[in-house]
Design goal:
The protein is an alpha/beta fold. The chain has 5 helices and 7 strands, in the order ααβαβαββαβββ. A hairpin with a 2-residue loop joins strand 3 and strand 4. This is Metal-binding protein.
């Protein structure tokens, strides 16, 4: 019982310190301070067309699954995607960066978590297009084929 009380007090103290440390800071500085406390494999930056509702739904989905998401309006995200190595024929509806990897499209978080834990020598992964059964879209069943891309070329990363 004392262990629970001690852990609870420690959590409250840590939360209080973080809250006190960010009090009075500019909003961007607060975001940076919070980001510093979130592991790199749980931080996600998304470049997306500001008029794409599914990208916002996907960002919400990522946040609900433990990611801290920074959304950047970028009508030219497709050019940015190609510049970082996403194959032109494999573009997704937005580009994300997570823990040094690029993720193009509506890739399920389970696959992103596998990517960041396996640490393969690739640039990233892509789920081309806007499959109806991908996170952020209306459908819920069916398989999704995700591709790895990098210096070694393009290969199937996941088909589930």
């Amino acid at each position: 019982m004392n262990t629970k009380l001690t852990l609870g007090a420690a959590a409250l103290t840590t939360a209080g310190i973080l809250g006190f440390a960010t009090f009075g800071m500019a909003e961007s500085d607060q975001a940076a301070a919070t980001a510093a406390s979130v592991p790199a494999d749980r931080q996600m930056t998304i470049w997306r067309d500001p008029s794409c509702g599914c990208c916002d739904a996907y960002a919400d989905y990522a946040e609900e699954n433990g990611y801290q998401v920074t959304r950047i309006d970028d009508r030219d995200f497709d050019t940015r995607s190609i510049d970082v190595g996403v194959p032109e024929q494999g573009l997704g509806c937005h580009l994300a960066e997570v823990d040094g990897y690029y993720v193009s499209g509506l890739v399920p978080v389970e696959i992103i978590q596998r990517l960041t834990s396996e640490r393969r020598e690739i640039t990233g992964i892509t789920l081309p297009g806007m499959p109806r059964n991908a996170p952020g879209m209306a459908g819920k069943s069916g398989t999704l084929k995700t591709y790895a891309f990098g210096e070694g070329g393009i290969a199937v990363y996941s088909d589930e």
